[in-house]
């Protein structure tokens, strides 16, 4: 049986990042990835904030496809709220390229990776964990990092809590669009994407290519495909999608409601496995990487001190929670309000938000990673908005 200092389960961006950081300190690290290729299939719309690159030593020019300055939010009856436009708020990235660059860096730092290696079991034997894969690897380690995505086996195997909900997503890479390349288009409404929203993200600077898609709540009777086909024909979006050609489909699940416990003895879970995802947008790359930076730090400390007790590893949970806990908690609260809005209410509030006093504040303070930062300046400038909160909750 082979021995490694750390086994990382999952070769996504978060597993790749953690593996690289630990390997950099000369520890023996292995990544097991069940898919045949890194970053494929794509389960992502690929919209990230510029600060994602602060964590990474990859060349961003290699993966950025387009820069985005604002968003047009379409209400159910197609009132359009335009926000931003003044500065770069986000990038559209080539997600397959992004994942590959992160893994390549991890390998350069010494991490090993095995593809098509589904981790089938992980068992605590004495002071160690023994891992077995579909490729018949048998590995012993003192530390396992579960970066194995929304349906994490490591999370389940070590009886850590489940995410609160799972959104179901669908999308596609398309060509022949005629879009403003600077703006993301967002569509809300029960008939479009119940419980979440649909998007069109221009992926080149001519507005002729895009990633489109939507997510719906998990308890909706119809399939995501049903809503996706409607989205292509829907009157609010169809003028933007009239002549498109679908190049490739995208799917996936988004876990929401970060885990209340992300560690146990010899085990840390991180990224989608820990549901470290923004509940308002479904974005998990920034929040995952921020959490991964703490995960890697505590993993290195544990390796240096040879202490893999639950008590010691708890430090990781405390650190990421201090950075993100409040934001993710508030995100779930906003989500609850949003999910309860009827189409009429969405129309009404989007109209109210078209007030230039409000759009100016959103454009100035809007931050896709920290949406709660908007609340204070919005309420300060337009205190009447506070009246909306109880009425939104009460009306439905
Ligand atoms: C439709 C959709 C759109 C999205 N859009 C955005 C967006 O625009 N911006 C954004 O920031 N986020 C977005 N996200 C979320 C984002 O994709 C995730 O937060 C991100 O991929 C999390 O990275 P991860 O490494 O934690 O997990 P993943 O990327 O899921 O990687 C986990 C890896 O583990 C592997 N694995 C799983 N089980 C095993 C096992 N037993 N053995 C070995 N390997 C295993 C998987 O094959 C996978 O490669 C979107 C998600 C979806 C579904």
Would you give an account of this structure?
By secondary structure, this protein is α+β, with helices and mostly antiparallel strands. 34% of the residues lie in helices and 26% in strands. Strands 1, 2, 8, 9, 10, 11, 18 and 19 form an 8-stranded mixed sheet that branches. Helix 1 links the parallel strand 1 (2-9) and strand 2. It is globular. Bound molecules: flavin-adenine dinucleotide.
Topology (SSEs and partners):
Elements: E1 2-9, H1 13-24, E2 29-32, E3 47-48, E4 64-68, E5 70-74, E6 80-84, E7 90-93, H2 95-108, E8 112-114, E9 119-125, E10 128-133, E11 138-146, H3 153-157, E12 165-175, E13 183-187, E14 198-202, E15 209-216, H4 224-233, H5 235-241, E16 245-250, E17 253-256, E18 263-264, E19 267-269, H6 285-305, H7 310-339, H8 343-353, H9 356-365, H10 375-381, H11 388-395
Parallel strand pairs: 1-2, 1-11, 2-8, 5-13, 11-19
Antiparallel strand pairs: 3-7, 4-7, 5-6, 9-10, 10-11, 12-15, 12-16, 12-17, 13-14, 14-15, 18-19
Helix pairs in contact: 1-2, 1-6, 6-7
The protein binds flavin-adenine dinucleotide.
Flavin-adenine dinucleotide is lined by residues 9-15, 32-35, 43-48, 118-119, 147-149, 153, 169, 171, 213, 215, 250, 252-254, 271-272, 277, 282-286, 288.
